[in-house]
Every structure is written in structure tokens, then in C-alpha cells.
Specification:
- 44% of the residues lie in helices and 13% in strands.
- By secondary structure, it is an alpha/beta fold.
- Strand 7, helix 10 (227-235) and strand 8 form a beta-alpha-beta unit.
- Helix 3 (44-54) runs parallel beside helix 12.
- The longest helix is centred in the C-terminal third of the chain and has 15 residues, at 271-285.
- Bound molecules: zinc ion.
Length: 297
């Protein structure tokens, strides 16, 4: 007799448990000031400790300069701990490049050099993160050239831009974006694309994936996804990713709480969706390579 009553009360008494499975950090920078050429405040053992504390098993690494990504890719500590480094070519040699990469042929040349070089953890798997603060800059010759290159070679692009620029970048591909895979950093700029607009873009572009760091309006006061975002993520469980965005060293200092915040709202999703957003979507976008890449080190 008491059992149905107890079950009936249960939802009122318990909070959703935090997600406790593995994480794929789909927005990680190891910029020069984090390691400062040799050690810096966050040398590779410090990075490894933070990743392990947070339960991060794979990282989408891209760094200014690209040397930071090479440092992680060849680090024995990460390799021995089983942390998978998925390298992207960043388009910046320094901060000045943020503002003109999209029309600078020397950036395209650097990309080709890095792609040919590869990393100790295997070939580069994509290009980015790159920024387009003005949508129209997506029309730049080098931006257009690199989108076509990415689609043709099966590279993923990671773009920090608004929804108009997503359309422009996608239009630059040979197949009109039927094959290009894009990680849309922060799922827009400053939250300007509404959840409805995000849904429309996900419908239009099969390779578009929204990364959720710094996304305004995502999380509500209880630490759970706001209702419209919960609906969106559950509707497209295979199209979202989480990331730390360690763009300044302060984000390294806050790495564990950042990931705990994700675990909290992931725990409010259905278990299958939580696992997909936390880890599986990243693994599917960047499948582990057969032994060759792993043994090349
Ligand atoms: Zn970033």
C-alpha cells in the first residue's frame, strides 16, 4: 500500500543526479600564454591533472600559436593517461590575425603547411576556431577558399560567427554544405540566434553542430537548461557539444567548476541525450583513427 504513494512523491524529493560519464571537451585552446613556450602557468602535467579531475577523455585542441596543439599532441603524459588529442589547425599566428585571416593568403599557406606537417597524435582533423565578428567577412576570399578545402578534404571547421555568417560559409562549399561539418562555437555570437533560428539551421545543414560554451540564455537559475534549450537539445540530441573555451588562463583555473556546471544540466536530460552531448557526438564527429595515427608517435 505504501509503495505507490512513495513512488508518487519521489519526483518531488530528489534532484536529477549529475551526469557522471566521460566528457569530450569540444572547445579547448592551449594558447601560448598557458604554457609560455616551455612551462608557463599550465604546463602539460597541470593540463592533464585538470582534465582527469573533470573526467575529460577527449579534447578538441586548437591553439594560438599552433605549437600549443603540437605540445599536447606529443605529450607522453596525456597519451599514457589515455586522453585523446584531436588536433585542429588554428588560423592565427598572433592576435592580429583574428581581424584579417579571411582575406590573407599567408593564412591559407600556413594551413597547408600545418596540414602537411600533421601532429604526433595523427593528422589535423579540421580548421579553427576562427572568428568572423562581421558576417560579411565570411565572403573574404581566404574564408571561402578554406571552406571549400575543408569540405573537399573532409575536415571539420570550427567557427565563431553569427547565423548569417554560417549561411555564407556553408554556401562557399562545392556541395552547398551537404558534406561540410561545422562546430559552431557558442552556437552563435552573444546569443543573437534564437533557439528557433538554431533549429532552422540544424534542419538546413546536416553537418552543423552547436557547441554550448558561453551561450547566453542556455542555463537557468537552477543550473539546468532553460526550457526552450532543453526542448531543442532533446529534439536534436546528436547535434550539440560542450566545451571549456580556455581562451584565457582564467578558464584553466576554472576548468573543474566549468565542467561541473555542464555535468549538472546534462544530468537533467534523458541519459541517452546526456551521453551524446557530453561525449558521443564528439567521438562521432572525430572518430578515433585506426592504429596508424596512434602509433606514429
Ligand atoms: Zn574559443
Amino acid at each position: 500500500m505504501w509503495r505507490p504513494l512513495a513512488l508518487g512523491l519521489l519526483p518531488l524529493m530528489v534532484h536529477a543526479a549529475d551526469y557522471s560519464g566521460p566528457l569530450f571537451d569540444a572547445h579547448l585552446h592551449y594558447n601560448i600564454e598557458a604554457w609560455d613556450g616551455h612551462t608557463g602557468p599550465h604546463p602539460p602535467p597541470d593540463v592533464l591533472r585538470r582534465l582527469q579531475e573533470a573526467g575529460v577523455r577527449s579534447i578538441l585542441a586548437n591553439s594560438r600559436t599552433n605549437e600549443g596543439t603540437h605540445v599536447l599532441a606529443r605529450d607522453n603524459g596525456l597519451r599514457d593517461a589515455g586522453v585523446r588529442v584531436v588536433p585542429l589547425v588554428r588560423l592565427y599566428r598572433d592576435r592580429r590575425d583574428y581581424n584579417h585571416w579571411f582575406e590573407d593568403p599567408s593564412i591559407a599557406a600556413m594551413v597547408e603547411t600545418e596540414l602537411a606537417r600533421g601532429t604526433a597524435a595523427g593528422p589535423f582533423r579540421g580548421l579553427g576556431e576562427f572568428h568572423l565578428y562581421r558576417s560579411g567577412d565570411a565572403r573574404g576570399a581566404v574564408a571561402q577558399q578554406l571552406m571549400a578545402l575543408a569540405e573537399t578534404r573532409g575536415l571539420v571547421v570550427m567557427a565563431h560567427c553569427d547565423d548569417t555568417a554560417v549561411d555564407l560559409l556553408m554556401a562557399a562549399t562545392p556541395t552547398a554544405a551537404q558534406r561540410l561539418r561545422m562546430v559552431w562555437a557558442h552556437t552563435g555570437i552573444d546569443g543573437s540566434a534564437s533557439p528557433e533560428r538554431v533549429a532552422a539551421l540544424l534542419e538546413r545543414y546536416p553537418g552543423l553542430h552547436g557547441e554550448l560554451s558561453y551561450r547566453p540564455g542556455l542555463v537557468c537559475a537552477d543550473g539546468q537548461l532553460c526550457p526552450e534549450w532543453k526542448t531543442l537539445v532533446e529534439r536534436y540530441p546528436q547535434r550539440f557539444l560542450i566545451g571549456s573555451d580556455t581562451w584565457v588562463n582564467g578558464r584553466w583555473d576554472a576548468y573543474l567548476p566549468l565542467m561541473q556546471d555542464y555535468r549538472r544540466w546534462l544530468g537533467g536530460l534523458t541519459p541517452a541525450t546526456a551521453r551524446a552531448v557530453a561525449f558521443d557526438n564528439g567521438e562521432r564527429l572525430f572518430p578515433p583513427l585506426a592504429e596508424r595515427g596512434a602509433q606514429a608517435r
